[in-house]
Amino acid sequence: MPDSPAAQNARPASLDAIDLAMLAELERNGRLTNAALAARVGIAESTCTQRLRSLRDRGVIRRFRADIDPAALGLTLQALITVRLGTHGREQIRGFEQRVRTLPSVLTAFHVAGADDYLLHVAVESAAALRELVLEHLTTHPHVRHVETQLVFEVLEGAGMVPSGARSSSD
Question: What does pTM read for this prediction?
Fold first, then answer.
């Protein structure tokens, strides 16, 4: 995913208490109607619409999407896979990233600092499918030097990104 406008500016967007309250509500329930969101944060619907548009335009809100349980799609096995490249030229990195983006099992890919270069969060239907993903699609890539797989027993949700003080009193 390309960098958002907020990330490209390399400094945090200027957010006031109402922006933070809106983000807290949307982080909890991204399907809120504009009317419900406006009521929860105590502003007019037209003001809410303008603020939402501004948050999207500034790259604070990147997108709205459904949070789908992989198990509901038969993808009952999740893993974290660390990948170490043998070379680190721009072309090699871009080539590996293009490959990762085409793999349907990859939920998220992180380009990281440290001993490893990438951390992939994947979901597959079975151990055999995980083995195939690693052996046929990762280790065969010409720039991959090392791969290590860790099974995920449980995915826990964190507190979220919006400061707890920005949450509404209806928590």
Answer: 0.80
